[in-house]
Amino acid sequence: MKKIFGTLVASENPEGIFYIQESLCKKISKKFDEFFIINLINFNLFEKKKLYKNKDSNNLLPHNFKIITPINEEELNKFLVDKNLVAFMEFGKNLNNFKIQFLVKKYNIRLIYLQNTGAIGNQYLGKNLLEHRKTKLFRFYFFRLKKILTYFLLKVFIFSNLFPRIDIYFESDRSIVDNCNNSLGKKIEKIFPFLKICYFKKIVHINARSFDTLAKNKLNLSEDKIVFIDANIASADITFREGKIDEQSKLEYFNQLSQFLLRLSNIFNKEIIICLHPKTDWDMYKKYLGKFELCKYQTSENLKKAFIVVVHESTIIADAIFLKKKIICLKSKILGEYISVRINYYEKQLGIFSYSLEENKELNKNLLQTKLENITKNYDQYINNKIVSEDHTFGEDKIINTVRKEYIINN
């Protein structure tokens, strides 16, 4: 049986893993002969079926990355029949992914779970969202009920050995690693190893993506621009929880955002550049924010040149913290409470300065700059807990070496 390495996705944009983990993917390309992006979107439940076929790899992908999109289980079986696959788990744990979970177990695919963004996860937010929820109660409680039901069913199927466990969990957040290693399940397994009740068989603490991509470049920094990190107002995180934003609210949001960015640009005499989310509709943002420079897939490069980073909420905020950039978190009622609560978390943890687009308060250049510079002094604890591990080995190197050691996959 041939041992192969890859990732499992269920997405209309299977190349997305490269945009999120570009540095890791480039290193994998050098260390392994092949890497397979296996798109299982045709196996999603409760969705209108479309015909997703194999397509040529995007030019941005390394030459030895191959995209496989099985149309049905017969095609999946034909691909896997003579192979042992070790793969990153990049599909969800929602109800519509349950068939994928079943197939992963059926074909004995070994799963690797990677959380190395250094940003907060949704596990911190459930209680806060419940406490702050004042509107759209039906949508919220439906969402919560669905999450609870999905979690319960997932656990039942895992313990029944119908769904797979995670072989290796790579995590950059020190507190999560400690919680997993000291969990009741781990303690029980140490006494009764045959029970196998933990979802993660092994957890490895690694340096975050920010450390891997930026540690070597911290000397090549400047403060030439004001960089706005787009959150994509049409993202699934927002629309699923808050509903689709109507055209009038969309126009109001973009007008408020444009006015704020212009004022910030005038106060500090700095150029504005807007870094769009990979899934953002370029034409929509060009229509509303065409007066500014827009870019995609160049966020890291522009972040290094930032005088101020303006953001609603994004995993990229960890990069800005690691580089000790001045950060302004923008609040907007139009984006809903999910984004607001995530911003509140960073306010509480780091004292990060937030600004409400609706309140439209005056900005004093000297006071704002002094405040933003003082806040950067609070970053060290966050960096030590969520971005940097005990050793300074690159997280991507630890991932690759662990995979080779555990599964004896050679280049």
Please give a structural write-up.
With 411 residues, the chain is of the alpha/beta class. Helices cover 43% and strands 18% of the residues. β9, α12 and β10 form a beta-alpha-beta unit. The longest helix has 23 residues. The chain is globular, with a radius of gyration of 22 Å. The relative contact order is 0.13.
Structural features:
411 residues, 7-stranded parallel beta sheet, alpha/beta, 6-stranded parallel beta sheet, 13 strands, 18% strand
Percent of residues in helices: 40-55%
The biggest sheet, with number of strands, parallel, antiparallel or mixed sense and barrel status, is: 7 strands, parallel
Q: Give the overall shape.
A: globular
Q: So how many helices?
A: 18
Uncertain stretches of 5 or more adjacent residues: 124-135
* Beta content: 15-25%
Look at the structure and give the mean pLDDT. Answer: 87
The radius of gyration computed from the alpha-carbon positions, rounded to a whole number of angstroms, is 22 Å
Side-by-side strand order of the widest sheet? 3-2-1-4-5-6-7
Query: What is the SS-derived class?
Result: alpha/beta
Distance between the termini: 16 Å
Number of beta strands: 13
